[in-house]
Write a structure and sequence with these properties.
The complex is a heterodimer of chains A (about 170) and B (about 775). Helix content of chain A is about 30%, strand content about 15%. Chain A has helices at about 30-40, 85, 95-105, 110-125, 130-135, 150-160, and strands spanning about 10-15, 20-25, 55-60, 65, 80, 90, 90-95. In chain A, helix 3 crosses helix 6 and helix 4 (about 110-125) runs parallel beside helix 6 (about 150-160). In chain B, strand 20 and strand 21 (about 410) form a beta hairpin. In chain B, about 60% of the residues are buried. The chains are: A alpha+beta (about 170), B alpha+beta (about 775). Chains A and B meet through helix 3, helix 4, helix 5 and helix 6 of A and helix 1 and helix 19 of B.
Chain lengths: ~170, ~775
Amino acid sequence: MVDDPPPQTVTVSFRVNGVERRLSVDPRYALADVLRDELALTGLHLGCEQGVCGACTVLIDGEPAVSCLTLAVQAEGSDVRTIEHLSESAAGLGALEQSFLRHGAFQCGFCTPGFLVIGHYILDNGLAKDRETVRALLAGNICRCTGYEPIVDAILAVSTGANAAPQDAS
Amino acid sequence: MSEGSIGKPLLRREDYRFLTGQGRYLDDIAFPGALHAHVLRSPHPHARIRRIDTAAAAKAPGVITIVTGRELSEWTTPLRMAPPIEGLKPVEFTTLPLDKVRFIGDPVACIVATNRYLAEDAAELIAVDYEELAPVTDMDSALAPGAPRVDDALDSNLVSHQTFSGGDPARRFAEAEVVVEATFRQHRQTHAPIETRGCCAVWDEGRRHLTMHIPNQVPHPYRTQLARRMRLSEGQVTVISPDVGGGFGQKIALYREELTVAALARALRRPVRWREDRTENLLAASQARENVAHTRVACDRDGRIRALELRLTEDFGAYCFYPANYLARVVAMILTGPYRIADYSYDVMVALTNKCGNGPMRAPMAMTSWIMDGTVEAVARKLGLDPIEVRRINMLAPSEYPYRMATGETLEDITPRETLEKAIEVFDLTAFRARQAADRARGVHRGVGVCCVVESTTYGSAFYKAAGIAGSGHEAGWVKVEPSGAVNASVGLMASGQGYETAFAQVVADGLGVDPEDVRIHIGNTDTAPYGMGSRGARGGTAGGSVLQVASHQLRDKMLAIAARLLSLNTSAELRLRGGKVQRQLGGAWQDAGLTVADIAHVAYLDPLRLPPGMEPGLEAHRAYDPPPMTYSNATHLCEAELDVRTGALALKRFIVVEDCGTVLNPLIVTGQQHGAVAMAISGVLLEEVVYDENGQNRSGSFADYLLATAVEIPPIEVIPMHTPNRKTATGSKGMSEGGVMGAIGAVMSAVNDALSPFGVVAEQQPLTPYYLRSLIRSAS
């Protein structure tokens, strides 16, 4: 076994899901790795580490970002929100999450946190104008299972208030 | 099914964790004390390994050890792929290459360090001395005389060659009024699940037991392989699959990296974990679909087909993790599909090349319906006939089932004609033709494509026997009612998005007479799940659902026998279970009998002297079920496309699937599978392409190059059910989830060719890039 010299680290401070954090990180670590490995926020996933698949999407200061291409040190002083925070609601599953459930908007679930984060962004900013607009806004997230239509349906349903009371499993 | 759960569109119950970021995929799971493995890969497509110098890398920070083919040859056995199939050459390869590398990305060494970043740093310090060799980069040059050999133990790169002839095709061709030929070139693709491969091996030295945590579709067969290669007994190995982030056939085989990680865990007596990044996944996991098919058909002037001949060649890559004929043979076997063709021959060749090895990718037989319907369309073009009419002339009529195909497969309980007519009706073909003509006049080119799919699914044991392939198609399951009345059940499958936890809870609930809410499905752990053949070949619903129904019925009958005893009745004939409660038929009406499943379970476990004489305590049923040799589902796909002839851009406007999948366990899940299959096909036909250049360099190592469809490219897909049951499976289901790929490939190609018909050119290759479509259009003028 090799006794490693301690790695060179940098201190970075930012708010994660409403909680102030102050972490010592290797400056080359991606924000995704710090959130997942240091803070156990394993909802976001690494599908490509190339910024294309969107499975690692988080909100930084309210804007969507791919955390795989964001260095942890770049998050200094910012407000980071992940799926764990966004999917909570006082009554259990949030409205968007319930809509995903109702519309069958996921299968294996691996890309789902990324779609939920961008879905929250779309809805919170009133961007779900029509089907074509929602499709274009989802172009930064890849799903290999669903063919996307149920995801578009789920987001539009919340936007238009089309969802009735949650459907019981019966 | 009247009051049962089967067929209800229940919302999926495994979903709470997926909706809140609490899914547990391999890389999400913390394994205390685990070391991290990283694989050094070959930068050359074909080269001898002269020397590997790890001295500098071994001293890098955090490095624990570095191993190569030498250590792995001591720790593990090689893989020998040698099923007794005529025309298939046996192949064998070591866990890590010893002598030479065969494709860019071939694993050469494995570094173990305290974290992934440091392991990757160390990899850059390893010096490998390669002697480059000439690569073979396409199937034609691979099969040419004197080609460099990919596998030095073989005398050529032709690793598999099978021929077949049924009926008398030669005579039909000699007598034919017309002979038509067609070509179909399918490009190389890769599965690209959003979760890449990875695993964590935990070796317990005290118990001498290996636990392999790995997302895998077939945990038990995987365990058998892993134990054998590690020279362990199956009693010393547990495979546990956490949530799987997509498989599509890529997460079946025991890969060399995984075996290396397991062997390292045992040698180091520390847990070792591994995750490949996306570039590694695109370069070195598994690839698929690179095939060229030539068909020749003898027909009458009215379009009636008299004989069909297929020549099919596949580029299998450099390593055989499966028998080399495994994928292509299905195409050849079911090619005639829904058509009446008794005189049929095929010649199938599979070549090794210096590329990543192939594996089954959702619908390994994906090009089948494109080839068959494309050939029918070629006949129609040659004779100036309507391609729908030519389909009708040749398609089997309902009265002709059961129909024995030339290859020996039996088609029954399928409805191709019905789905074809329904698709045409829903689409309103007549109105479209009028619209198409008007639009053409103003330079807008639309096309409509049709594809008739007959999808082979399930693959029972009798199929493997008849095909000379070792292996079984049965599935195993157990159902237990616990002392409290809660129900646990298990089956030898592993989910990667199919919603088994919900669908199978419905089957068990239906079979027992309880609420699905009270049933929990446990899968993926080889210690607790029964030995099954895993999830592949669209078998899950039929094989798994059927065995759970059989087991549930057995347990239900035992519970009713106990209830009869407790109610002092001679027989349970007038009793049934509904919603966990016993009901008794009295005077033609069903009434509550005052007993619940919990009451019965209490007696069975904790008061067994009250059981019927001779009955064993407990409420457990453990069964196995072998489905029919093959079950078939069918569908007609119809696609409307718009082609911009100035740019070659193709937009899909409308997509209809009329499907018959037999009894549907859960319609939401089945529709979801159909959408996913169609979307994967569209993505493949329009965008995806694994590109190896003439030097053997893989040019598609990132998602910037290997393009997957996004929400923008996938049109709305209308799925119209026309389900009829299969009379030979326990639940009546037929299997599905791959046919969508087959049909969509054919329908999109057909639509493009319909759009191109004024130009007199035919698209016969994929992907349908703007570049290719423009080159076709230019060639017309």
